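Most newcomers find our protein records easier to grasp once they have seen one. Read left to right, the backbone structure tokens trace the chain's path through space. Nothing more is needed to start thinking about how sequence determines fold. An example says more than a description, so a record of this kind follows:
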Amino acid sequence: MSDRIDAARRPTSAPLVPGIPGLAWADTRAAAVDLAQHGWPVLPGTYQLAEHGAWLGRRGAAGLEPVAPLWQLATTTNPDVAMEWWTRRPYSVLLACGAGVDGIEVPAAHGQRAQAQLSPARRGPVAVTPFGSWLFFVRSDDEPLRPELAANGHAQLHASGAWLPIPPTARGGLPYRWQVSPSTVGWALPASGEVQRVLIASLSRRTGGARPSLA
């Protein structure tokens, strides 16, 4: 299905809404267009107009989620289509994983240690979630999550079939933000295996606590 068909049939099915004062909408749209222009498959997500407000963009939405039920068919890497979609509504910006970009999520303390140990050749974009975890973005290369990370690092691999919020998307007024923005590293994505090796090397003694999650 082409981007043009998606643009006509999915997110744009909702009526236009008037402009919202402030820069938040413009920032979100700019982020979606920039990501699409660099080949990151983005899709519209539900959104809030005020902290702790109702989720809009999809009837019955209970939280942050894709607007389109068949969201895998409602992604785009076309900046013109992204501009059209995010001009109509201040959708959250979501990334469809597995189509060039994956994410490895680890607790913040682990992420900080690993980031300090990454060589320039292995550095890629890193986002900080509002829930005590970091997201390392890597190339989609079918590399599974290493068992050491799953067992001892409380890590999660977000790959094909998953989506991730992308800054400046927010939940309940709490934003996702870039620790290392894609532009800072020239939009380069390291191999998943290389980043996982550094994450394994930076594992500390296992401690208790709940596993951070995007859910």
Summary: Helices lie at 3-9, 24-37, 79-88, 108-117, 147-152, 192-201. The radius of gyration is 17 Å. The first helix runs from residue 3 to 9. Residues 5 and 200 are 43 Å apart (CA to CA).
